[in-house]
Amino acid sequence: MRVFKQIPGLALLRKRPQNQIPFSLAVGQVIKSSDATTREVKVIKMELDDYLKMYFNKSFVFETVDKNSSSKKGDIVLVRKLDKPLTQKKFFSIEKVLFQIDNIIDPITGKKISHDQDEIKKHLEQLSQLYN
Amino acid sequence: MPFKKGPASWRRTIDYLKGGTLVFREKVKVCTINYHETLPESDGLRRFVFWHLAQIQYKNPQVQCVQLKNIVKTPFITFHTLEDDKINSIYVNCYKKKEHEILEYCEKLVGKTAEEIEREAQTNQANFGQGCSRYCICLVEGQVACPRYKPLPEFMRGKYLLSKQDELEEIRKTKSDEQALAEYWNSK
């Protein structure tokens, strides 16, 4: 079968379609930072199994553009689809950083997460007094 | 009900999945759920995810639903919306709330009403084809009749245009195209 591999037109038939996510806005996690402005992002989508009728997670990994280089490895990030893609592989750009891995801030109370046991007890007692 | 195993296995039937009441509006694109797996404050959200998340994803296949676990201690839900090139995010606090309260609150905020869902589910009565009341447009008054029972004039048929042009020229010497059309409409 080596004769058939040398025919140049057959490479087009063997090309598999790119796995693209059909969303225009998505939430994902940064895996790798190769350049100053490119980041690799992992996005999760739920897909239905026909027989079991259950949803299982399927992950997609692709490259994105980061203009201000404001994200690090491990951040949770909002990603948006571009009208005009920059290269053949970069269709998305990073809009906003939701959770930074260095300092995680609770968006409802506005406080940082701390690991001292005394502060955790005070925080929980204050919240229970407010709602009881 | 196939595969009757696991806790509450009727969650995995199509009748239950179609019985969901939350249908998002067009502006909502992402729905993320933040909760903790062992703390007692996020007990209501855990039950909401157990009973209702599959229904939401079945009714809205274009929305991304993500679970983020064990990051922050307070449980909350966020909705990220896209409208006129502007991105907004809505936060819903779920500290010590029960699951039916969370569902009703989200329906008022972000969901479509029952009337709008009924209106979109009705089909157009003017359609024709398979599965509709009429199988072809030739049954309607004022339209061109079925050419099986009443053949069209010769200048409109492909058989004469492509391969029998000699006979077409002979016919065109006696009648013009407009006369042939008028005869077609006036005859029975």
Automatic annotation (TrEMBL), chain A:
This is 28S ribosomal mitochondrial. It comes from the Eukaryota. One of its GO terms (cellular component) is mitochondrial small ribosomal subunit. It comes from Brachionus plicatilis (Marine rotifer). One of its GO terms (molecular function) is structural constituent of ribosome. PANTHER family: 28S RIBOSOMAL PROTEIN S17, MITOCHONDRIAL (PTHR24088), SMALL RIBOSOMAL SUBUNIT PROTEIN US17M (PTHR24088:SF0). GO terms for biological process: mitochondrial translation.
UniProtKB/TrEMBL annotation, chain B:
InterPro entries: Ribosomal_mL43/mS25/NADH_DH, Ribosomal_mS25/mL61, Thioredoxin-like_sf. Signal peptide: none annotated. It is found in: Mitochondrion. GO terms for molecular function: structural constituent of ribosome. Its main location: mitochondrion. Residues 37-113 form the Ribosomal protein/NADH dehydrogenase domain. GO terms for cellular component: mitochondrion; ribonucleoprotein complex; ribosome. Keywords: Mitochondrion, Ribonucleoprotein, Ribosomal protein. Gene3D superfamilies: Glutaredoxin. Belongs to the mitochondrion-specific ribosomal protein mS25 family. This is Small ribosomal subunit protein mS25. The lineage of its organism: Eukaryota, Metazoa, Spiralia, Gnathifera, Rotifera.
